[in-house]
Amino acid sequence: MALAPEAGREQMVGEASAPAEAFGVVAGMRLGEALSRCPELRLVPPDPEAVRGLWHEVLDRIERIGGAPESECAGAAFFEADGLRGIHGGDLAGVLAATRRSLGRGSRIGAAPSRFASYCAAREARPRRAPVVVEQREAAGFLAGLPTALLRSRPEFGPLPEVLDRLGVRTLGELAALPSRSVAERFGHPGLLALDLARGRDTPLEPRRPPEPVSERIELPEAASGQQLERALEMLIARVLARRERRGRALRALAVSARFVAGGTWRETATLRIASADPERIRLALGPKLAELPSPAESVALEVEAFGPPAQDQGRLLDEEGAARHARLGEAVRQARQAAGESAAMRVLDVDPDSRLPERRSVLAPFVDSTPKGRHR
Amino acid sequence: MNARSSKRLATPCAARVRVGECGVPVALGGAAVDSVREDWVVEDRWWTGRPVRRRYFELVLEDGRNVVVFRNLSGGGWFTQRG
């Protein structure tokens, strides 16, 4: 079996079971190809809400043994083990045993000096078997034989793993042997980061912040759509804003989710450009998301994912009308010139941006507050 | 445009460049050149009485800086320029 494509998303299967993998079905494969490889494939509707709930439970368990987990996506979490040795028997084995007891025998656990190396170690580990432990001195050797395709686990690399593969750099050892300067010239910052990972180094962990669950759900009496959904959204926003846990703070990021009549769930996140407690502004940000609801829903919910500053502390400059802002800017320019002369406020003016001679492309000209838009930056 | 109150950006600055056998820079000021990333020739304004002919080099210096220098093929001399 495999997870069916999410409603309204690309037609690709999600995680696949071991028997499906035996037929060559892997996560991210196009549905048509998956079915042609495994005609008996059973597709299970994805339930991102349930996954989120279960994964939070896993992270809670890690926190209960003292860990501070970092987790970018459900399925993989990382935490520093060194600080926990003292409370779990004094050594790494004690920490790993506590982790196993907390997460259950089905989990894959790996320990290594860096995030990426421990991810690779956990992939090598098998459920119900001992965790794979890679010591500092073994890290480079351990990583050397592994494929560069493992870099796909880090979304910041984009197409880099495929490019490395096309260039014949197939193992992390081959990547680690390349000179830093050449990698930097060819691939820039992502290349240097990949090189660090291949050599057993990584960026520091960023543990999750303790969650402050503020969510509201509304059961829909029948297959609601259009205006009914808008009203439901308005009500959810009003309820969330009225929650005591908000403590006067503006909202930065929210998630709107739905449970479908036919089974399965759906979830979309919206991050506000400016943190706000204005119901109208929030409705404008979330309305289009809810309009993308791919199937009739029996309930919709709204959850705060991140809070902003206290609502009354928001700057007002950006909220003002353009004319008032322009007038203030003009006054600021006049005052600066009064104090420091004409050159206090200049602008870059593109005069011949396509010229092959750099000195002919732009000039620094006095800032004029009535400048038409477009030709300056 | 008011010439007194406007100023061109990225104007060339005279530079002290030491060159190797093929005319390729090996040092800029006191810093040795680590590698030459790219070189190219610009010929422009040949239709005027003041044609421009330059050979540009994009250099990585040993101190980590990335700079662009050119040799003026018409009047001679080396210059740095920010693009």
Describe the protein.
The complex is a heterodimer of chains A (377) and B (83). Chain A is globular. The N and C termini of chain A lie far apart (55 Å). Chain A is built from twelve helices and twelve strands. Chain A has a four-stranded antiparallel β-sheet, with helices on both faces. In chain A, strands 1-2 form a two-stranded parallel sheet. In chain A, strands 3-4 form a two-stranded antiparallel ribbon. By secondary structure, chain A is an alpha+beta fold. With 83 residues, chain B is mainly β. Chain B has a seven-stranded antiparallel β-sheet, with no helix packed on it. In chain B, strand 7 and strand 8 form a beta hairpin. The model of chain B has no long low-confidence stretch (mean pLDDT 89). The interface between A and B is medium-sized, with 18 and 21 residues. Strand 12 (362-366) of chain A pairs antiparallel with strand 1 of chain B.
Portion of residues within helices of chain B:
under 10%
Low-confidence stretches of chain A: 370-377
**Terminal CA distance of chain A:** 55 Å
Tally of discrete structural domains of chain A: 4
The averaged pLDDT of chain A comes out at 84
Q: What is the chains' assembly state? A: heterodimer
Helical region count of chain A? Answer: 12
The outline of chain A comes out as globular
Structural class by helix and strand composition of chain B:
mainly beta
Q: Which series of helices and strands of chain B comes N to C?
A: EEEEEEEE
Radius of gyration of chain B: 14 Å
Described by the principal axes of the CA atoms, the overall outline of chain B is: globular
Largest interface chains and counts: A-B, 18 and 21 residues
If you average the pLDDT of chain B, what whole number results?
89
Whole-number radius of gyration of chain A? 27 Å
Strand numbers in spatial order across the main sheet of chain B = 2-8-7-6-5-4-3
Tell me the major beta sheet of chain A. 4 strands, antiparallel
Helical segment tally of chain B? 0
Listing every helix as H and every strand as E from the N terminus to the C terminus, the arrangement of chain A reads EHHEHEEHEHEHHHHEHEEHEHEE
